[in-house]
Amino acid sequence: MVFKLPELNYSYDALEPHIDKLTMETHYTKHHQAYINNANNALEDQDKFKDMDVVELLQSLDELPDEIRIAVRNNAGGHYNHSLFWEIMSPEGGGDPEGELGKKIEEDLGGFEKFKEDFKKAALGRFGSGWAWLVLDDGKLKVVSSANQDNPISDGKIPLMGLDVWEHAYYLKYMNKRGDYIDAWWNVVDWNKIQEKFDKAK
Ligand code: MN
After folding, report:
1. Whole-angstrom Cα distance, residue 164 to residue 27?
2. Centroid of ligand 1 to alpha carbon of 26 (angstroms)
3. How remote is the CA of residue 171 from the centroid of ligand 1, in Å?
4. What is the DSSP letter of 135?
5. How far is the CA of 166 from the centre of ligand 1 (A)?
6. Is domain 21-87 in CATH 3.40.50.1580, yes or no?
7. Which tens digit of pLDDT belongs to each residue from 97-122?
């Protein structure tokens, strides 16, 4: 399928002061758009693969022709990852996960505070560019990280939330302080959306 930018449900400055307007606008209109363009270009002449949706593609990396495998892995991955990232943030975000998801975080991850600690460790510990994730893996919640634009889908896991820790996601405002960006990010996490994804994934 021909990929395009998903609609953003808030304005570029809506997540201020945690994510600044210029970072948001550049990230969405330039970085995400570039992943989309590159993915579309790579798949253009691939009759067998061009009608797949992005999840199918990320589940099928091994079947792709050698000459497009890396381009699809990086750019379809980049498209999926950023689409999820925009979706699970909201100006009304923050607070604690409640309900079934909150309970599951208690059970599998030792509670919200412990989860936040482990998530920060994964996000800070990812050397260079990548993502930190909350995933559902065989019915259990887990915290993992990935390099570049790799996605847990390619390892058979279901991503529920992801944090972009590429420098382009925070450098304009936080410069080298990735930890401050991670701490601030919890204020915009939309737990209702993540609960929805959890409900669908179970
Ligand atoms: Mn990014």
Report:
1. 10
2. 10
3. 11
4. E
5. 6
6. no
7. 999 999 999 999 999 999 999 999 99
